[in-house]
Task: structure prediction
Amino acid sequence: MGTHTVVNQPPPRVDLDEYAANVPLQEAVERHDAGWAASDLGEVGRHVGTAAFQADAERANVREPQLRGFDRWGNRVDEVDYDESYHRIIRSAVAAGAHTAAWAEPRPGANVARAATFMLFAQVEPGHACPISMSHAAVPALAANPALAEAWVPRLLSREYDGRLEAGKTSALFGMAMTEKQGGSDVRANTTQAIAAGDGRWLLTGHKWFCSAPMSDGFLVLAQTAGGLSCFVVPRVLEDGTRNVFLIQRLKDKLGNRSNASSEVEFDRTVGYLLGEEGRGVHTILEMVNRTRLDCILGSAAGMRQAVAEATWHARHRSAFGARLVDQPAMTAVLADLALESEAATAVALRLARAHDADAPDTDVAFRRLATAVTKYWVCKRGPGHAYEALECLGGNGYTEAFPLARRYREQPVMAIWEGSGNVIVLDVLRALGREPASREAFDGELSAARGTHAAYDAHHDRLRAALATGDESSARPLVAALAVALQASLLLRHAPAAVADAFVAARLGPDRGSLYGELPPGLDTAAIVARA
Result:
């Protein structure tokens, strides 16, 4: 393996200042009316950058969760035992409001601040982000049933964390179970059945192929009724303190993080409560899906930030062939390109978060419908390649599990798969373009706001408008990619320093754009970009 000639030997972890001093993130938070959160975010950044937190992240992914199906007397308990490090991570994230702070304090910029908090935690340990994200996304879905909302939402808004499965808890986390073996993304093919018990409860029977975070307190579940596919709230513990039937058949041996348990479960007359109208299950759960799609973008952007932090820190502290790696032009170009990708992802992620705020204008509601799907496709697909290039900057060290980028590389693909893989998303974009003209107009308005600042950008926007007139399923992927980079370029041209904005447009839209990271056009201020990162 071709590794760098080592002249000095830095410690294996990035120091805490590297995580706390995230300039693009801080600027974006303040720009989107969430400047009130800057001091809190600084504290979160310092916390996740400590050696203790990073050690917990490593330990939680080495001491994997264990399924405990039975107690010592042979009774089914269906519990997952986590290392205490995992509980400490979730406890910190909940205390900081990474889950539901935007719902608990719905002021201007609340979703931006919550998104930034989520990203700071997720950039160090992504596994815990699954129940944190689903708890955030469950809140608007629960509004479909006022009684269920009254029972669950106050617990979801709590800043306390209690990992036990017990009745009477004042806090809660939520999960979701939609996917089945025969259906996959086609949830309408689900075969899980729900039968009304006659007392307001429903009894569910079926097999769920993926159920993440099985130790959560409640789950949104899709099941078939006489009226069609419907949505249900399934608690793990019933009101009388007994365990609901929730048969964890196995934990998935998955590619990415090891800290969070992903499971396969069966229901056998499992108690659930109808959420929304019977037969309208997809509509009911759609808001949760849209919110978790946004969190996929946040998670990918968080991973990119970790990758940039690790790669740039390493390059500043390693020397080869008589000079620091960061000062060698070939490496500077790679680091600058990685930083451009990270900043563009951060900018669009927080712009989308702002569009979800309660005080967002109506045009933002239309904008986020299309922009969330477009960005979910692009940013999440860019994540694995970005992680790999950053990993390579560390040479052989990056290829080992002693450094965090190997884990990040394994983690990034899930963001593109979860809540709709690539083709599902691009088909959703085509539906929005064809059926929701207000969304299309709002998106174009966002792009038009940057016109006149860069000739290459204007030319790309013109080509894009022409392509939208003839786009179909066969050309959907390049069309969505073109929409995504246009949105990122528009945001950077309006809000980022000139060195960053000009470089992004030249590298992503210009005639000299390359295929791989580090293939930048000549004349860019790469040193300034790396210094900012």
Observations:
- The first helix runs from residue 16 to 20.
- Residues 1-7 have pLDDT under 50 and may be disordered.
- The radius of gyration is 23 Å.
